[in-house]
Design goal:
single chain, about 80 residues, mainly alpha, about 85% helix, about 0% strand
Length: about 80
């Protein structure tokens, strides 16, 4: 149960943070992307918490969070690397 709580708190937060940055990679105005990312992060965090406690095991919960984080990390990485250049 502790692993699920940690996954919900920290894994959900990390997923929501990635979801808030990823829309900046879209070809839209920056202000719209920021607003979309902020709104999406609340839904992503809630969905992550629900997923963690609905999964059959803690390992499956972590795996689901990781699977959802990979495409978001790719989009967010593109934004971060473009900002560094």
């Amino acid at each position: 149960m502790i692993a699920r709580i940690i996954a919900a708190a920290f894994g959900g937060y990390a997923l929501a943070a990635l979801a808030s940055v990823a829309p900046l990679a879209l070809p839209v105005d920056v202000s719209q992307a920021v607003l979309a990312g902020m709104l999406a992060s609340f839904a992503v965090y809630a969905a992550a918490v629900i997923w963690v406690f609905a999964a059959r095991s803690a390992a499956r919960a972590w795996g689901g969070l990781l699977a959802a984080a990979v495409p978001l990390l790719l989009a967010a990485g593109k934004v971060w690397l473009a900002g560094a250049a």
